[in-house]
Amino acid sequence: MQAVNSHSTFQHVNLRSRLLRTTAAVSLAAVVAGCAQDAPQDTWQPQGPNAQRINDLDKWVFSIAGIVGVIVFAVIGFAVWKYRDRGQPIPEQTHGKPLLEIGLTILPALILIGIAVPTVSGVMALNKTDDTECIINVTGQQWWWEIDYPVQAGCGGIEEPIVTSGQMVIETGTKVLVRGTSRDVIHSWWIPRLNGKRDMVPGRIHTVRLEADEPGIYAGQCTEFCGLSHANMRMEVIAMNPDDFAAWKANQLKDYVAPAEGSLAAEGESAFITQCSRCHQVNGLENSDGTPNIARPDQNVWSGAAPNLTTLMTRNTFAGASWDLLSEQCRPNVWAADSTEVAAAYLEGVSDDCLNEVELRDWLRNAPAMKPMYTDPESLEETNGLPRGMPYLALSEDQIDQLIAYLLERK
Amino acid sequence: MFTTGSKLLIGSAVLATVAAIVYGVSQNEALGIVGLISAALALSLIAAFNVWARDSNLSAMDPTAVATSDAATEPPGSSIWPMVFAVGATVVLVGLVTQQTVFTIGLVIVAAAGAQWMVQAWAEAATADSTVAADVRARIANPLEYPLLGVLSVGAVAYAFSRVMLWLSKTNTVIAFSVLATVVACIAFFFAFRPSIKRGAISGAVTVGAVVVVASGVAAGVDGERDIHVHETTGGDAAYVCDSDLKFEADKKASETVGMKASTYTITLTESGELTYDVPGALVTGSDVMDLPRSNPNNIVFRNDSGKKHRLTVDLGLAPVEEEPDEEDGEAHDDDGHGGEEGPETLDGETVEKSDRLLRCTTLIEPGGAQLLTLEVDVPSIDPSIIDAGGYRFYVPGTDAELGLYVP
Q1: For the whole model, what pTM was predicted?
Q2: Of B260, B265, B291, the CB nearest to A150
């Protein structure tokens, strides 16, 4: 009997010890995770005045909440310990302590005022639009972001609209207003180091301010569950100084240059026209009869839009910014570059020897196998047979070679 | 235990249940099953009630009680319900030859008076003691009477309220009901601070208030509603309507759209006759061309700040050419109901030429009014067909107001 009791006690101690160890390990992991250096979506590393404002407010509110929490737990702990049941008689019951009650009403009110004033003023400051210096439109759809720069005096002057996707390029020190909506379901735009998140709702326009202090690449992703590939709906903001931004704009608007006759890229251009240009626009591309090639994604995909590929290789991600266009060897040259070099590295675009050809090939070979999308024609009754996302195109390996050669020249 | 009446009802309920099962198995039709199950449930309910009441406490085993009990020998008290029933029956007859509403009211009176008459008769048959009989009647009837009367009273007051609101002008409505709400709040405060006030005083005040509201409602209803702008809901063909000042509308859905007041594009026809636009954040565009995302249902609020009725029209280029008539059915097929070479049409007494443009528009908006236009454009502005057609533009028919539209 004694042996059984001893065994049971041992088991109990062992279980408690394991529980304690597990709890300690999880807590330690949580604390250590907060120290991660390579955390591109860390909201507590603000890189612009808007994010800084949120961060300052966070610190203030969490400090107050922390102090209140500690005091409350301490008082409860003290009361539980001091007045624990030791068989003593129940003390005399009294009714009401006006001074204490008034104090306990005024104190929380003051604390709430202390939180409310900076919160409300912060919310109003983050919703300001009258100091905007550049407007950029953002349209979400399953599962990528279209980004377009309307004609405006802002952004250093834009005389022709620029349409791109996945990566938004902005000037440092410029107050950018993102004007967003959605083509299908609700998405949410969030670049944690530059500002808070904002839902993009079909039929409505919502705005969010962005401003970056230093050149760099600021990552984000859709933060409103939007379907099968929600996790693969990412985006980046690339901030660069005004001169670099002007160079980027000029490059986006330069005339289309057709591939050299007889080259693999020229064959790729034909393949692009027959296979890709139903959905993807390349500005300046002409059909064989000399008429402009105009994509009609509204007739071919459910969202009615597909990424504009005019300058694909000036971006360094594809497919909803979820895969790199840069190879593993070249990627750090841009992504790990310091603020003085990042813009120049980014503006170089993707060269032949830096292309992440393996994944781009996989994508062209069978896109739905890489990124889950509703593209199976038999399961598209609700969407009139139109796929949501890029479907399987049954391209031959030769066509893929040609297309890659053609796309490499799109920069 | 089971009286003759109970047995009859139980038998009927069982029969209806069996019939429902047989019908359900033999016939593939839902309505009959629902009817039979409903009948079975109703009969079961009445049977259960009858068993519980045991035919007014008279033993079925003692038939003499029917003739000799106090309840049977005591003459019934006076009742208003036969008279009300008769009035209801008369109203039904009058309704049959006049209006359906009168007929319906008559039916309601007959049903209500009949129910009251039956309950009273049943209560008087249960006991010779008139006090107990009244109590029994109240126990059965009050749970139905009070909610029904409450609903009717509140409905009458609310309806009267609405008549008064529709009689007053828009501004006076706001003033009148602000004052009324204040008076109600003051009286409520007064009652709250005087707990000793007599119940009768409160009832009296509430009754007087209700009577005043109902009387005002009747008076306002007789005098008629204020002049309310009638919203045109007659559908028209965009190719005829959108380029005109006709009151017809081309987009019935637009008039059914719940108005959005924020987070939309806004196009305003100003007092000076210019078209201006406002987009959240459109502060540095420096452009007189509005841009809209392609292939996206964009909501645009049109505000008419000019002094006349106007509509906003968007010109989306040349209308698609109508297909040749199908040889089989001889009818032309058209994607969206416009285009083609049809001649003029007479609308609202005016001869209107059909436009060869693809148009979308709001209905005719009164001065100071606004309406939502949902616009989706799938073809980009760089498409040669759009460039050749002069590009997209918003305009206001009958004026020079115009605004460019660019779709990337």
Answers
A1: 0.68
A2: B291
